[in-house]
Design goal:
This protein has one domain. It is built from 4 helices and no strands. The radius of gyration is 26 Å and the shape is elongated. It has 154 residues and is mainly alpha-helical. The longest helix is centred in the middle third of the chain and has 55 residues, at 75-129.
Length: 154
């Protein structure tokens, strides 16, 4: 068997067993309890959105107090100043993301291509080294797994 890429190697057998057990437990949980897993995911997403809203309100209230104290304005003037200040901060952040996005895209594309080629090479070498009986077993297990996923989820 040829050289296995460094990031695909697992050093100890106990670590390998623990990782495999973790993935197996996750897959079984997703197959048996998909509503619980997705419900938990959406609850966590809701919690993150509420946290983002709370942080936004905290920043807005503090900017209101700062502008009102520094410029000695009434409520309407303070709201207008804070609105345009936050709008300019948002546009500055969007401009920064706009300039950062192409670099991140091309770097991610290159990394994913390398990972895909390494994994494809590893799987093809693994398949080539299997005996005929083990190839049949692997194909039967994969077919049964796909059948169970389709049968129990639709």
């Amino acid at each position: 068997m040829k050289h296995i890429p460094e990031r695909l190697q697992i050093n100890s057998i106990s670590y390998r067993k623990a990782v495999n057990l973790f993935f197996f437990a996750g897959i079984v949980t997703l197959i048996i309890l998909p509503d619980v897993v997705f419900g938990l995911f959406f609850e966590l997403l809701h919690l993150l959105l509420e946290l983002a809203y709370t942080i936004f309100e905290f920043i807005e209230v503090n900017l209101d107090r700062l502008v009102e104290h520094v410029f000695e304005t009434d409520v309407h003037q303070t709201q207008v100043i804070v609105f345009y200040l936050m709008l300019s901060i948002a546009f500055g952040g969007l401009y920064y993301l706009w300039t950062l996005l192409p670099r991140v895209y091309y770097q991610s594309k290159d990394n994913l291509l390398v990972i895909w080629l390494e994994l494809k090479t590893f799987v093809s070498l693994y398949w080539r080294d299997l005996s005929l009986i083990n190839k049949i077993k692997l194909a039967a297990i994969a077919t049964a797994g796909i059948y169970c996923i389709i049968f129990f989820n639709f």
